[in-house]
Amino acid sequence: MTDGMKSGAGSDPFATDTDDDGESSKESEDPNEDVGGTAGSSPQPNVGTDSSPDQELQPTSTEESVEDLPYIFDRSSVKSERKATQYFLREETQATEKDALRAVEQELGSDVSLIDLREALVRVGAEHLDEVADELREWGYRFREE
After folding, report:
1. Which positions ≥6 away from 25 have C-beta within 8 Å?
2. Distance of CA 95 to the CA centre of its chain
């Protein structure tokens, strides 16, 4: 035994295999060949992967796909792209907000973040300023009107 290992300890795991002619042989000449494949055989398709022709129709640019995402999926957190705004609510308004959150969640069939609900309420309210003005009049602003 000329590999420098004790007799009976097995073969050197780092030695290259040699055939009867003393030539080194490699398991695979082609680095792209699948493990377990035989030399000269065609590559086997990847089993269990989704490689359908439809994938080629998908946008290849990250920019294209990100622009198409709805806001809640495009952000990294619910606070993304938002500035903190502190405001104070009376208890009855907090109860109204809680009821609105439950109703919207039921309508959408999904959980909704309170931050998202508040922003949506502001945006929809801004589209219905006449109703906002009516609410403020009920609070007493009618006495300040000219």
Report:
1. 16, 17, 18, 19
2. 33
Q: Which residue has the tokens 């609510």?
A: 89
pTM: 0.52
Q: In whole angstroms, how far apart are CA 17 and each of 20, 25, 39, 113, 122?
A: 10, 6, 17, 63, 74
Nearest to 97 by CA among 128, 80, 120, 74: 120
Sequence letter at residue 125: G
Say which residues have a Cβ less than 8 Å from residue 14's Cβ, sequence separation at least 6.
none
Tens-digit pLDDT profile for residues 24-52: 444 444 444 444 444 444 444 444 445 44
| DSSP conformational letter for 53 | G
- Which is nearest to 106 in space by CA: 91, 90, 117, 95? 117
Full DSSP string of 55-84: GGGS--SHHHHHHTS-HHHHSSSTTTT---
Q: Token pair of 102, please?
A: 């439950």
Q: Is 4 left (phi over 0), alpha (psi -120 to 50) or beta?
A: left
For 69-92, the pLDDT digits (tens) are: 888 888 889 998 899 999 999 999
